[in-house]
Amino acid sequence: MKADVAVIGAGPAGLAAAIAAKENGAKRVVVLDREAYKGGILPQCIHNGFGLHIFGEELTGPEYAARYIDMADNAGVTFMMETMVLSIDEHKVITAVGKDVGITTIEAKAIVLAMGCRERSSGALMLPGDRPAGVMSAGTAQRFVNMEGYMPGKDVVILGSGDIGLIMARRMTLEGANVKMVLELMPYSGGLTRNIVQCLDDFDIPLKLSHTVVKMHGKQRLTGVTIAKVDENLNPIESTSEFVSCDTLLLSVGLIPENELAMGLNIQMDSVTGGAVVDSDMQTSMDGVFACGNALQVHDLVDFVTEEASRAGKAAAQYKKIAKLFVNTIAGSGVRYVVPQKLVRDGIDKTLFFRATKVTRGWYTIARCRGKIIASRKRVMCAPGEMENLVIKDADISGGVTVTIEETKT
Fold first, then answer.
1. What's the sign of the alpha-carbon dihedral 182, 194, 292, 57?
2. Are 344 and 279 in a shared domain?
């Protein structure tokens, strides 16, 4: 099979990329996904809050997904569901295996990597204790409750304050569980402020910052956890240890971009984001291979995933192997990373996405080129759990662009 653009992943990023590719001239766009249904993680996200930026209204995850699935179907996108991509070679030939097609190959002119991300598991945390039932990721619990109709437990402790964990604290409470607390290793939350307010504060669920689980108890089923406060080096303080009775421990301790395919192509990766290094066309270090969505960087809002993926899909449809003039972006003081890592000098204004290294209030986000401020915003609050962005004009890019978060604008 041949394709103008092949998209790996039928989640929000893959759907948006495929639609944009179709809208920008790609005749045959093929989307491959290992699941039986389209939409990625969205079908299990039944809470609202999706679509505020794109549609100007609050939608649930299934509603948001349905709109893009309909647009993709109407645009004539070809879907290969229940199809696992095994490998991609240097000639952009995809080898995949599926229930209906067996082992098949797709020769693509351009490829968009939109595989999403996965949750960090309990094994990665190496928590002391036995391995009883009742310990699972927040996303697994979300699927059990929202799609399978099962309650994971009754007395719940949540480790990690990522957005999925915060949302599940509310969801479990609404289903009748007793959510005793949310623990966060860092001195700040990893989730959106609105989720802290709507999911914890509104339900009187305590958030214990600088706390973690130091031991799990129970043989067949979890019977409780020992928690403790941590010091500035994130080491547990033994004198603060206390036992909390519970039958369920949900983990919301970070998301990891799915990038085995990208690494198999020896694409340049960013050690901070866990995703590929891309330019402002979302193209990776391999010509004709683009990346977007949570496979590129973990996003807070699906709307931003959609916008990013649309750029990737458009660029993939218009892909030609030509020399480009690049300008590098640099994460300066107060900034953990910047995406895209390279900017193409093409006359089009750019949006830079980045995250703060700490919580600040009333500070400025600033982009500089050759010492000159080319973009700035005063922020009420910057926090590591919330993505920041700045729009810069292509005409101002004459060298490397450094992004900082500073107390005063100088």
1. positive
2. no
For 18-49, the DSSP string reads HHHHHHTT-S-EEEE-SSSSSSTTGGG--SS-
pTM listed for this prediction: 0.93
Domain span at 152: 121-253
Listed residue (76, 98, 89) closest to 32, CA to CA: 98
Asked if residue 249 and residue 260 are part of one domain, the reply reads no
Q: What is the mean pLDDT of each run of 10 residues along the chain (410 residues)?
A: 96 98 97 96 94 93 97 97 96 94 95 96 82 94 95 97 94 97 94 92 96 95 97 95 97 93 95 96 96 96 95 95 86 97 90 95 95 94 93 89 90
Tell me how many domains the chain contains: 3
Amino acid at 196: I
Q: What tokens does 16 get?
A: 């948006």
Planar angle of CA 267, 271, 275, nearest 5 degrees: 50
Q: How far is CA 212 from CA 166, 182, 251, 332, in A?
A: 16, 9, 11, 30
| 318 and 405 part of one domain | no
403 and 351 share a domain? yes
Q: Are residues 155 and 236 in the same domain?
A: yes
Assign residue 98 the CATH number of its domain.
3.50.50.60
